[in-house]
Amino acid sequence: MAISLSYVFFFLLVPFSSASTACDGCLHQSTAAHSSNASALQYGSCGYGSLAMELNSGQLAAAAPSLYKNGAGCGACFQVRCRNEKLCSKEGARVMVTGLGNTNTSDFMLNSRAFAAMATAGMSRDILQHGKIDIQYKRVPCEYKNRNLAIRVEESSQKPYYLAIQVLYQGGQTEVVAMEVAQVGSLSWRFMTRSSGAVWSTGRVPEGPMQFRFVVTAGFDGKWVWVKRPLPADWVAGGIYDSGVQITDVARESCSDCDG
């Protein structure tokens, strides 16, 4: 299915003006809860599984619905700093969203590694004794030095009936909001659906090597990104493939309407 011009114009020309999008980079006040169940965040609703511990030094977070954004917030990075001056460092911790939080009173639920990383030297054990702590946080770019964005083929994929993929090592301060796939050399792009969290899927798998393109947003702007290295025809479920590109965009935004 070829993409329509109206579809392109919607993503590239219409500003994204919701408060949650426009103010991602602003400083917010909230609380963070501590989760001692490491697997709950590692295997959160974004679907990263065992790879989650490799994506952001293992500092993981489940986020409130306004930050999770129905899965578009998967992989987003936030600088989180607790406000207890006796326990906490000024730098805080950089955490990555791996799932949807299950508390209505905190914007983040952090694993032990992320929670302890907020502490000043020698105070990590003390801060872990707190089940919840007051924080300040803001959205920051994700950084993956010497790594391109990668495409992971989910284990549920099966030729030629079903393909599910996930974007890994996504840099910058962006969100993937649309994904398409086509056979290399073809203009018949097929729209993929977000099946869960960071996983995109299609029931019509092109033959041979495949090319991908997706729409990313950064603040008010959206743009197409084309994967430079196609998925080979002999792809295997569970395989991870270098895309040949990396995203470094940082949101351009105004925070005049933000609280905190």
UniProtKB/TrEMBL annotation:
<dbReference type="Pfam" id="PF01357">
    <property type="entry name" value="Expansin_C"/>
</dbReference>
<dbReference type="InterPro" id="IPR007112">
    <property type="entry name" value="Expansin/allergen_DPBB_dom"/>
</dbReference>
<feature type="signal peptide">
    <location>
        <begin position="1"/>
        <end position="19"/>
    </location>
</feature>
<dbReference type="InterPro" id="IPR007118">
    <property type="entry name" value="Expan_Lol_pI"/>
</dbReference>
<dbReference type="InterPro" id="IPR036908">
    <property type="entry name" value="RlpA-like_sf"/>
</dbReference>
<keyword id="KW-0732">Signal</keyword>
<protein>
    <recommendedName>
        <fullName>Expansin-like A2</fullName>
    </recommendedName>
</protein>
<feature type="domain" description="Expansin-like EG45">
    <location>
        <begin position="43"/>
        <end position="147"/>
    </location>
</feature>
<dbReference type="GO" id="GO:0009506">
    <property type="term" value="C:plasmodesma"/>
</dbReference>
<dbReference type="InterPro" id="IPR007117">
    <property type="entry name" value="Expansin_CBD"/>
</dbReference>
<dbReference type="Pfam" id="PF03330">
    <property type="entry name" value="DPBB_1"/>
</dbReference>
<dbReference type="InterPro" id="IPR036749">
    <property type="entry name" value="Expansin_CBD_sf"/>
</dbReference>
<dbReference type="GO" id="GO:0009653">
    <property type="term" value="P:anatomical structure morphogenesis"/>
</dbReference>
<dbReference type="GO" id="GO:0009505">
    <property type="term" value="C:plant-type cell wall"/>
</dbReference>
<feature type="domain" description="Expansin-like CBD">
    <location>
        <begin position="161"/>
        <end position="243"/>
    </location>
</feature>
<dbReference type="InterPro" id="IPR009009">
    <property type="entry name" value="RlpA-like_DPBB"/>
</dbReference>
<dbReference type="GO" id="GO:0005576">
    <property type="term" value="C:extracellular region"/>
</dbReference>
<comment type="similarity">
    <text>Belongs to the expansin family.</text>
</comment>
